[in-house]
Amino acid sequence: MKVSIEQLTFKTIIGILPFERVKKQTVIIDIFFEYKFSKKDKDFIDYSEVATLVKKTMNKEKFELIEDAILTLKQILTKQFKLLNLQIKITKPTILKNCIVGVSN
Q1: CA distance 40 to 63
Q2: How confident is the model at residue 24 (pLDDT cuts 50, 70, 90)?
Q3: How would residue 44 be classed by pLDDT, with cut points 50, 70 and 90?
């Protein structure tokens, strides 16, 4: 099965600039993954648990670099939920006035 969690939006501390270390800013996270679904075993991924874990991790870790956030989230999500082909995009929509900045793997 293929799952997408798109536009997961919340405020968190992320960034290396001095003001980013004290004031929360909006991030938008898109997550795409696959997993082996078995109706017989009722083996499924609860996407609300995935979204909650992402938000909790981001708020706890207060990452400096988006790249570090993506690597950490990939490691945690893959281990906890046994996800395949996990792709994550983190966007900071308000950091620059004339564009939207994001990083993906």
Answers
A1: 40
A2: very high
A3: confident
Whole-model pTM: value is 0.94
Report whether pLDDT(65) > 90. yes
Sign, CA dihedral 60-79-81-87, equals: positive
What's the rounded Cα separation, in Å, for the pair 30 and 104? 9
How far apart CA 22 and CA 85 sit, in angstroms, is: 34
Give me the domain span that covers residue 49.
2-104
Count the neighbouring beta carbons within 10 Å of the beta carbon of residue 33: 23
User: What is the pLDDT, as a whole number, of residue 43?
Assistant: 81
Task: Give just the sign of the alpha carbon dihedral 65, 102, 26, 100.
Answer: positive
Q: How many domains does the chain have?
A: 1
Q: Quick check: 26 and 11 in contact, CB under 8 A?
A: yes
CATH number at residue 63: 3.30.1130.10
